[in-house]
Amino acid sequence: MAGVAAFDEMGREGEPARALYRKVARWLEETPAELLASRRAQAEYMFRRIGITFGVYGDKDAAERLIPFDIVPRLISRAEWRKLEAGLTQRVKALNMFLTDVYGARRILNESIIPPELILRNPFYRPEMIGRRAPHDIWAHIAGIDIVRVDDESFYVLEDNARTPSGVSYMLENREVTMRLLPDLFARHSVAPVDDYPDELLACLRSVAPRQDRSEATIVVLTPGLYNSAYYEHSFLADKLGVELVEGRDLFVEDDQVFMRTTLGPRRVDVIYRRVDDDFLDPLVFNPQSVLGVPGLIGAYLAGNVTIANAVGTGVADDKAIYSYVPDLIRFYLSEEPLLKNVPTYRCREPDGLKYVLERLDQLVVKEVNGSGGYGMLVGPHATQAQREQFAAKIKADPANYIAQPTLALSTCPASFDKGVAPRHVDLRPFVLSGADSVRIVPGGLTRVALKEGSLVVNSSQGGGTKDTWIVDDIEDED
């Protein structure tokens, strides 16, 4: 896959646009550069006015900043989306079965499908959950699965985000801004809506509430607070869901039940959509220094009186070493072949994998198994010899902490800049909602774009941006 020219989703320069993108190509040809510049400026103004920012820890010069937004939408056909949707549903179903198993019967370990140390020594494996079952055996209620494309037909899963996946607020705001700024282009297409995501999320959370009358369930969004990097999203989702945004100090536990402090007195809480990591949820069970969580929360959870989404211990499935086994999990639990492929992955914990990786650091992307946000990784072809040598030393010192993958020729989409329209590499994060009654996936997701020319790193913390994702008819009719 490395060394191959990237597949451009609109079509290579100088060649006719792919049928799906003909109207976009024509619109770009018809739209003066100064108008595109005006739309870019308007988009930035709108995002600033909305207040949608992203915090970057450790960056004193950019403590709060906008994630850049590219105004040119990305198009995916309905036929392509149906295949993605089926593969995503299959994958998340297998991940939930895996989580039920590793805290329960451990068949996956007993039958040697996964080495036990990958589970039992995983920093996100929670012994407190051994022998416990999540309500309805749903652990990852909200999953963000990162997808990359390499040619006209092939999509690969790059990463599973099963702890507290973020980005859905950008998916929704991107659509709002695009519809307001590009009404003429939007009107030329039949675009599947994403604005029902809050309703789907609310239905998903209500379906796992412990009380019998779920229509009366009280749901809250638990945030670490104003200084968290994703605080905007926490407040945005609470507002869209029509539920309270709370911090740990707003909740208390009595008789193994969780209550919210209100001006009308205590109100029982049934479902907590938490955006706080396990370690900080309950100082009586995890980090005793935590002031972000609620003392006694885990006791109430284990008593079955409150549902936590995502469930405690879900992070064991949000691991790049476990990722490499997900096709095996699908075969093991579902007796099916994976509908979506993994990117080929080399495990440095295995001697052959370690040898292969160290000999080819100039060709591979190396990642920490528990890394995120584009940190703790080496993009070999774009690194200097000194950087590769430094990273090789890290790998040798702790091989089990690293996996490696080929540098895929990620697909590109057109993006608008001051100097004109140019292709940039993209990925896609669809959001999969698993409830007691069904799996829900809104058609689309968050397209992340590497705005630096030639860069493959789309993470917002590393300078990446976002764009709207349109699921449209397979071949749009001509105007």
Describe this structure in words.
The structure is a single chain. This protein has helices at 22-30, 33-50, 78-102, 107-110, 116-120, 168-181, 183-187, 197-207, 231-241, 297-302, 320-323, 326-334, 351-359, 385-397, and strands at 54-55, 64-65, 69-77, 142-149, 155-161, 219-222, 244-246, 251-254, 257-260, 267-268, 271-274, 307-309, 341-342, 346-347, 364-368, 377-379, 402-406, 412-417, 420-429, 431-434, 439-441, 446-449, 465-472. By secondary structure, the chain is an alpha+beta fold. It has three domains: 19-192 and 318-338 and 424-472, no CATH class; 211-305, Rossmann fold, CATH 3.40.50.11290; 344-406, Dna Ligase, domain 1 (2-Layer Sandwich), CATH 3.30.1490.270. A five-stranded mixed sheet has the order 3-23-22-19-18. The chain has a five-stranded mixed sheet with strand order 13-5-4-20-21. It has a four-stranded parallel sheet with strand order 7-6-11-12, with helices on one face. A hairpin with a 5-residue loop joins strand 4 (142-149) and strand 5. Helix 3 (78-102) packs across helix 12 (326-334). The protein is globular. Residues 73-450 form the Circularly permuted ATP-grasp type domain. This is Putative circularly permuted ATP-grasp superfamily protein. InterPro entries: ATP-dep_Glu-Cys_Ligase-2, CP_ATPgrasp_2, UCP005522.
Poorly predicted regions: none
Largest sheet: 5 strands, mixed
Overall tally of domains: 3
Q: By helix and strand content, what is the structural category? A: alpha+beta
The fraction of residues in strands falls at 15-25%
Rg value = 23 Å
Sequence of strands across the biggest β-sheet: 3-23-22-19-18
